[in-house]
Design brief:
- This is DUF5666 domain-containing protein.
- It comes from Bradyrhizobium rifense.
- The chain is mainly β and about 210 residues long.
- The protein has one helix at about 5-30, and strands spanning about 35-45, 45-50, 55-75, 85-90, 95-105, 115-120, 125-135, 140-150, 150-160, 165-170, 180-185, 190-200.
- The protein folds into three domains: about 1-30; about 35-70 and about 165-205, Copper binding periplasmic protein CusF (OB fold (Dihydrolipoamide Acetyltransferase, E2P), Beta Barrel); about 80-165, no CATH class.
- Helices cover about 10% and strands about 50% of the residues.
- The protein has a five-stranded mixed barrel.
Length: about 210
């Protein structure tokens, strides 16, 4: 290689190395979260401050079209054949699907997110939104067969599993101390906005 060619190649190699390192940094960057679970610390104007369950302070701009849903406790007996439910499950010791929580959707929300997918509530957890086609009562809970468009799953719901449902909510319920799940998106300036918040009523922590 001539000296002239070597001098020409050096800046190209340097640029390539910088590009490669930048790409690696982008590839390793943590994904932007889509929801925050935690406790409201303050609401001021159109700003919601939430202390996440892992201890971070998360500041959210409240979108003008904010939707608020209340989460309230119901009983295991309220899960009926034909109910459209969401079930967060983790693998059980016997290889089955043990419910961490179940939420029963009102009829107006039937079909919401139908299917089964990985979920971020606990390690190895999944979320299945489906219709209950069979419910078998056992000594310590119910075994539900839930069916969705592309499959089905058997879910064990113990007597201790939290069961909740959605009720109409209002922005006035977003106050200090309330337990929430706020769905969020990142704005171009790097800040975060929420247009949907699930809030636990009567001190309830939304279990999903």
């Amino acid at each position: 290689m001539t000296i002239q060619r070597a001098n020409f190649m050096r800046p190209l190699i340097a640029v390539a190395m910088v590009a490669a390192s930048t790409f690696a940094a982008v590839a390793q960057k943590a994904p932007v979260p889509t929801r925050v679970r935690g406790t409201i610390e303050n609401v001021e104007g159109d700003t919601l401050l939430v202390k996440s369950r892992t201890g971070e302070d998360v500041k959210l701009h409240i979108a003008p079209d904010l939707r608020v849903a209340g989460i309230t406790k119901i009983s295991l007996a309220d899960i009926k054949v034909g109910s459209f439910v969401g079930a967060t499950t983790v693998p059980g010791p016997d290889g089955g699907n043990n419910a961490v929580e179940v939420h029963v959707f009102p009829e107006s929300m039937r079909g919401t997110g139908e299917g089964s997918r990985p979920y971020d509530l606990k390690p190895n957890s999944s979320m299945t939104n489906a219709t209950v086609s069979e419910s078998v009562v056992g000594n310590d809970g119910h075994t539900l067969l839930v069916k969705y468009k592309d499959g089905e799953k058997k879910v064990f719901v113990s007597d201790m599993t939290p069961v909740v449902t959605y009720v109409p909510g209002d922005k006035s319920e977003l106050k200090a101390g309330a337990k929430v799940i706020a769905f969020m998106k990142q704005l171009p300036d790097g800040s975060f906005e929420t247009d949907r918040v699930n809030v636990g009523l009567d001190g309830l922590t939304p279990p999903m």
